[in-house]
Design a protein that fits this description.
Elements (H helix, E strand, L loop, with lengths): L4 E7 L5 H17 L3 E7 L5 E2 L11 H8 L6 E4 L10 H9 L8 H7 L2 H10 L7 E5 L4 H12 L3 E5 L9 E3 L2 H14 L2 E6 L4 E9 L4 E2 L3 E4 L7 H5 L4 E3 L6 H18 L3 E10 L2 E8 L9 H8 L4 H21 L1
Parallel strand pairs: 1-2, 1-4
Antiparallel strand pairs: 2-3, 5-8, 6-7, 6-8, 9-10, 9-11, 9-13, 11-12, 13-14
The site of adenosine-5'-diphosphate (ADP) has 19 residues, from β6, β8, β13 and β14.
Length: about 325
């Protein structure tokens, strides 16, 4: 493979900043170990782009810091950001305008992937099954919607922001009082929330790699220590992750098929991971993550290893897929 100049974007302003810094530094090491000219660009909590070798002058605007940080001019930007303003199409749009190739999904797929409600509308259109839920918007009465959800789905209920990741602010409870105050908190940072039927099944996730069509990787089974895969258990090593998942061959194939349909339905590129719950012989698609965690211990790299890709090969492959996607888009 050719050697490229790669700017690795990490950090950012979302609740998943720390996870991104961990992903980004491992991505950087992997690219350096393969002989690429890679350098880190950290997005600060204020949104400024920081390149250690070309620090931005005092009082720089964000746009000035962006121009300043992308030196030397990269052949491609590796977007190792998670959550809003990173995984949601906004950074991808900036790079499109700047004419700089980048890894992973484009503007539309990234934006859809970050919006659980809108991506589910598309998944349903493609015949995929998603958990039953009620959408809660700013102007709605939380109490009324909770009563409605209780009547339709019973208790406990799952609540989550429409547009976060890493299980941030996800809660499962049978106490309407608790759910109500948690929803108030969610709506103070997020424009919409989902109130969802609790599915006490087996949690599985399917990573994918490729452009169109993508290759589904082996299914991973997730066994969190508590009630669900919350923020802490995602990152403290307490969750059991079994790959390949201990499910029947036909269920695993079905899960992989669903992941491919979901990836193509949103128009994803490069890599992604589809989260699901297998409950009473049905596979429910929770969401697709367009930039899943990329540390060596993260789910996608783990599954890739089972399929025979070492971490640094996987990272290099994502770069290659980004360039292929960019070139084909700009040829037509
Ligand atoms: N309907 C549900 N039933 C049971 N557990 C759920 C449900 N929805 C989410 N969870 C739990 O919460 C976690 C995070 O939910 P998810 O929809 O994937 O949001 P996030 O974007 O924060 O990862 C899941 O990995 C799972 O453990
Ligand atoms: Mg998830």
């Amino acid at each position: 493979m050719n050697k490229y100049t790669v700017a690795v974007l990490m950090g950012g302003q979302s609740g998943e900043r720390e996870v991104s810094l961990a992903s980004g530094s491992m991505v950087l090491d992997a690219l350096l170990s393969k002989g690429h000219r890679a350098y880190a660009v950290e997005i600060t909590e204020q949104g400024l782009w920081w390149n250690r070798d070309h620090p931005f002058p005092e009082n720089s605007t964000i746009l000035e810091s962006v121009a300043n940080a992308l030196k030397p001019r990269p052949d491609i930007v590796f977007v190792a950001l998670h959550g809003p303003k990173g995984e949601d199409g906004t950074v991808q749009g900036l790079l499109e305008i700047a004419g700089i190739p980048y890894t992973g999904s484009g503007v539309l797929a990234s934006a859809l992937g970050m919006d659980k409600h809108r991506s589910r509308l598309i998944f349903k259109e493609h015949g995929l099954v998603v958990p039953p839920y009620i959408l809660l918007e700013q102007e709605d009465s939380i109490e009324e919607k909770l009563e409605q959800a209780k009547g339709r789905f019973g208790l406990p209920l799952v609540i989550k922001p429409n547009d976060s990741g890493s299980s941030l602010m996800v809660a499962i409870s049978s106490s309407l009082e608790q759910l109500e105050s948690a929803l108030e908190e969610i709506l103070s940072i997020s424009s919409k929330a989902l109130i969802e039927k609790y599915l006490p099944g087996k949690e599985i996730t399917v990573p994918l790699i490729g452009n169109d069509p993508p290759q589904p990787l082996p299914v991973i089974e997730i066994i969190p220590p508590g009630l669900f895969f919350d923020y802490q258990s995602k990152y403290d090593g307490s969750t059991k992750e079994i790959c390949p998942a201990r499910i029947k061959e036909e269920v695993a194939s079905k899960a992989q098929e669903i992941a491919v349909v979901a990836f193509q339905a949103l128009g994803c590129r490069g890599f992604a991971r589809a989260d699901m719950i297998y409950f009473e012989e049905e596979i429910y698609l929770l969401e697709i993550n367009t930039i899943p965690g990329l540390t060596k211990e993260s789910l996608l790299p783990k599954s890739a290893r089972v399929a025979g890709f070492e971490f640094s090969d996987l990272i290099e492959k994502i770069v290659e897929l980004g360039l292929i996607s960019w070139n084909s888009k700009n040829d037509t």
